[in-house]
Specification:
GO molecular function: alanyl aminopeptidase activity; metalloaminopeptidase activity; peptide binding; zinc ion binding
Radius of gyration: 28 Å
GO biological process, one term: proteolysis
Shape: globular
Number of strands: 23
Catalytic activity: Release of an N-terminal amino acid, preferentially alanine, from a wide range of peptides, amides and arylamides
Helix content: 40-55%
CATH class of one domain: Mainly Beta
Keywords: Aminopeptidase, Cytoplasm, Hydrolase, Metal-binding, Metalloprotease, Protease, Zinc
CATH topology of one domain: Immunoglobulin-like
Oligomer: single chain
Strand order of the largest sheet: 10-11-12-14-13
Distance between the termini: 56 Å
EC number: 3.4.11.14
Number of helices: 20
């Protein structure tokens, strides 16, 4: 044994250097350190989480959040993703508390020095990174199930709320076999626990699978459809990390985008498998793809892949670009390669690097081997430079053929691109025509600034559309006559929903960037009067909302409200207020969206009905269904007074579910009078 003689802390670098009296011999040794840590209030490392028992007592649980660099707050370690180890964990805890860690419990014995404590010993973990280690000590109930492939799945919930864990349990039990099958690699552990924690900074803690309560708990009576969907996506995302992230881990934080982008893409694949009725891929376009394009068109965007020097930079680069643009370019890549070769490449990658570390290039390499396509060359243009292209297209009829001319330029939210350099992308282009709007007539890789294509046997009256399925990460600007010919295909719904959404979103963004006139967009919006699809409406509604905000406090504000009422009232009348038999998940989401939009715009019948239902709800005569609460709340507040606001604040105070509290907090800003807005602001900072 050699005893250390000195400890030198380098606090900025979060390092400690140990000095020994003589040079240590080469070879294997064991370093033993006694240490004391603090159960902190920083919501990172090993921290305490406050909760209230059903009887109203305040208590604390102890939980962990180590990603990216906070394992070192809990115990001394080489806290880098590439330095993997096995972990033998024991926790000494009060005997009436639940203690959980990554592995199953192998021993539980009384603690010699204190009869109120027990020592809980867990099995040795597989080889893994420090940021994946987790411990939780608290009071929980659980529900459990076995997945088809025999893994024991448990969802831990606050005491008395076990019922609310059932939905997440069902999703997890379906998801594990799906991923096992998709990657053709079994789940590496005997069990998995999903734990709902009251205050959780990450929203979803990748890795021991601790979650914010709202991300895991569903109350069959009081949870709305969008909450269910969110829970399903979060569970799908976190379980994907068990393969992509945990079994194979990124070499260094520079490659974190791949971990997150990949999980953010495959969570949709998994939910689509579990709940085909959610039409989730169309929602992906509205939630991730268009959001990423909005941010990535700004001059202060950044590439998906950012070199990380000091680990403290990790939090700065974890943003919607890493998640949403990451997921969007992986979706484009999957489409470009095709599902079969993509799965082959994924399996190659996961088997080659299991229990090890890998860099982005290693994945490209495996996918290139499986597909024979130039994956690295294509993907580098999307991950190593910021932004994305705008593709201008015009068509010319030549006898029975259409000749298309395509030009790519960087798309900028601030107007046409005028930079000195000409950034270029390798763009997988797909083209469909009115012959078959769901099938690509031509697929080609655009690897230069301009491209001329000939589409054979296309009659003059047939339309042509780029970016089938809105999968390519680019925007399209059509020549006026090409755009004109697409409008009937929106009206008669022959263009699929995701293509209708993309077309409208591109146009709106072009108008926002000052490249085309807003009038052109509003004309196209009128073509959506027969639109049945929730996600398409949702995107349309956001865009009209932006316009409405721009025009507030101007002479045109009233006119845009009239336009909103004109666009939304036909669908509002078709849907009505109450669910009809046989309706699904998406109808519930659409009804909430449309009624909220009409109510906010001051549609007379909607406003009166909302007030009537709100009164019944508050008096306890007839409780509003979860899906109608947001639209009703927002409508009565927007056209309400101080009494309405006081009632809402009272409902907030009485709410038992976090979901309902969040729902009320989101709508309080709708109140109109300046002195009440001040009151809301004070409440927000209280």
């Amino acid at each position: 044994e050699v005893h250390a003689t000195g400890f030198n802390y380098q606090n900025e670098d979060e390092k400690v250097t140990l000095s020994f009296p003589s040079t240590l011999q080469k070879g294997t040794g064991t370093l033993k350190i006694d240490f004391v840590g603090e159960l902190n209030d920083k919501m990172k490392g090993f921290y305490r989480s406050k909760y209230t028992t059903p009887t109203g007592d305040t208590r604390y649980a102890a939980v962990t959040q180590f990603e990216a660099t906070d394992a070192r707050r809990a115990f001394p370690c080489w806290d880098e993703p590439a330095i993997k180890a096995t972990f033998d964990i024991s926790l000494v805890v009060p005997k009436d508390r639940v203690a959980l860690s990554n592995m199953n419990v192998i021993d539980r014995k009384p603690y010699p020095d204190d009869e109120n404590l027990v020592e809980v010993k867990f099995a040795r973990t597989p080889v893994m990174s420090t940021y994946l280690v987790a411990f939780v000590v608290g009071e929980y109930d659980f529900v459990e199930a076995r997945s088809l492939d025999g893994v024991l799945v448990r969802v831990y919930t606050p005491v008395g709320k076990a019922e609310q864990g059932k939905f997440a349990l069902e999703v997890a039990a379906k998801t594990l076999p799906f991923y096992k099958d998709y990657f053709n690699v079994p789940y590496p552990l005997p069990k998995i626990d999903l734990i709902a924690i009251a205050d959780f900074a990450a929203g979803k803690l990748p890795f021991s699978l601790n979650y914010r309560e709202t991300a895991l708990l569903i109350d069959p009576k009081n949870s709305c459809s969008s909450s269910r969907q969110w829970v399903a996506l979060v569970v799908g995302h976190e379980l994907a990390h068990q393969w992509f992230g945990n079994l194979v881990t990124m070499e260094w934080w520079t490659h974190l985008w791949l971990n997150e982008g990949f999980a953010s893409w495959i969570e949709y694949l998994c939910v689509d498998h579990c709940f085909p009725e959610y039409d989730i891929w169309t929602q992906f376009v509205s939630a991730d793809y268009t959001r990423a394009q909005e941010l990535d068109a700004l001059d202060n965007s950044h590439p998906i892949e950012v070199s990380v020097g000091h680990p403290s930079e990790v939090d700065e680069i974890f943003d919607a670009i890493s998640y949403s643009k990451g997921a969007s370019v992986i979706r484009m890549l999957h489409d470009y390669i095709g599902d079969e070769d993509f799965r082959k490449g994924m399996n190659l990658y996961l088997t080659k690097f299991q229990q090890k570390n890998a860099a982005t290039e290693d994945l490209w390499d495996s996918l290139e081997k499986a597909s024979g396509k130039p994956i690295a060359a294509v993907m580098n243009t999307w991950t190593k430079q910021m932004g994305f292209p705008l593709i201008y297209v015009e068509a010319e009829q030549q006898d029975d053929d259409k000749v298309l001319k395509l030009v790519q330029k960087k798309f900028c939210a601030s107007g046409p691109y005028t930079g000195e350099d000409f950034p270029m992308w390798m763009v997988p282009i797909s083209i469909c025509t009115s012959d078959d709007p769901t099938c690509a007539k031509m697929q080609i890789l655009m690897d230069k600034p301009e491209l001329t294509l000939v589409l054979k046997d296309i009659k003059p009256d047939q339309w042509v559309k780029l970016n089938l399925g809105t999968v390519g990460f680019y925007r399209t600007q059509y020549s006026p006559d090409m755009l004109e010919s697409l409008i009937p295909a929106i009206k008669d719904l022959s263009l699929p929903p995701v293509d209708r959404l993309g077309l409208q979103n591109d146009l709106f963004s072009l108008a926002r960037a000052g490249i085309i006139s807003t009038v052109e967009v509003l004309k196209v919006m009128e073509a959506f009067v027969n639109e049945p699809n929730y996600t398409v409406w949702s995107d349309l509604s956001c865009n009209l909302g932006i316009l409405s905000t721009l025009l507030s406090h101007t002479d045109f504000y009233e006119e845009i409200q009239v336009f909103v009422k004109d666009v939304f009232s036909p669908i509002g009348e078709r849907l009505g207020w109450d669910p009809k038999p046989g309706e699904g998940h998406l109808d519930a989401l659409l009804r909430g969206l449309v009624l909220g939009k009409l109510g906010k715009a001051g549609h007379k019948a909607t406003l009166e009905e909302a007030r009537r239902r709100f009164k019944d709800h508050v008096e306890g005569k007839h409780i509003l269904s979860a899906d109608l609460r947001s639209p009703v709340y927002v409508t009565v507040l927007k056209h309400g007074d101080s009494t309405t606001l006081d009632t809402m604040l009272k409902l907030h105070k009485q709410a038992d579910m976090q979901e309902e509290k969040n729902r009320i907090e989101r709508v309080l800003g709708a109140i109109s009078q300046p002195e009440l807005i001040q009151k809301v602001l004070t409440f927000a900072l209280s």
